[in-house]
Amino acid sequence: MKFVKWITLTPAEREAVGGGSQRQSGIAYQFKEHCFTAMLPNGEECMVSYTRYAVRFHSLEFSAPLCQKIGYEGELSGIQAVEEKGKELAPQAFRMAQQDEQKQMRRKTPPQGVALKSIGEPQLRNQSAERQAGYYAVCIRHVSGTLVPKGVLYEDPNKACEELASGVHDRVQLHGEQRLVVGLCCRYAKRWQEPKLLALPAKPPEPAESPKSPARRTRKTPQT
Fold first, then answer.
1. Residue ranges covered by each domain of the chain
2. What is the mean predicted confidence (pLDDT) over 5-25?
3. 132-152 pLDDT, tens per residue?
4. Per mean pLDDT, which range of 31-35, 113-117, 143-147 is the poorest?
5. Which label site among 12, 90, 98, 110 has the fewest CB atoms less than 10 Å from its CB?
């Protein structure tokens, strides 16, 4: 009969293989997983799942709508430090998700599970869709949902949001339920769409109401 032989490792060796003592620098590591929420740059909350693989190697996974995982090498001493690191990395995860969305918009074919019929009729020619794919711009959103670009094309979505908020389009005449929004050009759909992720507030400004002229008072003529 064979017996398992136990090998005694030094503290440095245990740390190298992901073990280590339960207490290092006076700090107890009593958890390996933790879930919490972090505020995103757009003001929404996102669930974050934390996993500790070793004393100095950690993983923070941001759930939908980001669906991003970031590894961190360093010491995180306790739950509070983990949550602070998650809040610190939230903008980075948000930008990574935006880049993934841009990459999807530059595809020639739709992603798996996306039906072109559900998107709507193409509104751009192949060359225009290919040239503008993945770029952001201020657009007029019509009642039908169609987006027509009015501003400059930007690689950075924040630039389009800043243009919308700057007031440069305040004189654009909007009719009915038309609104100014930030759009993102999709190559495989051959049309402009509203992006799912915008870091800066891009609330469409309400159309200005035309000032009403004061009612004219008629003067009665005295009867003779």
1. 11-105, 122-193
2. 47
3. 999 999 999 999 999 999 989
4. 113-117
5. 12
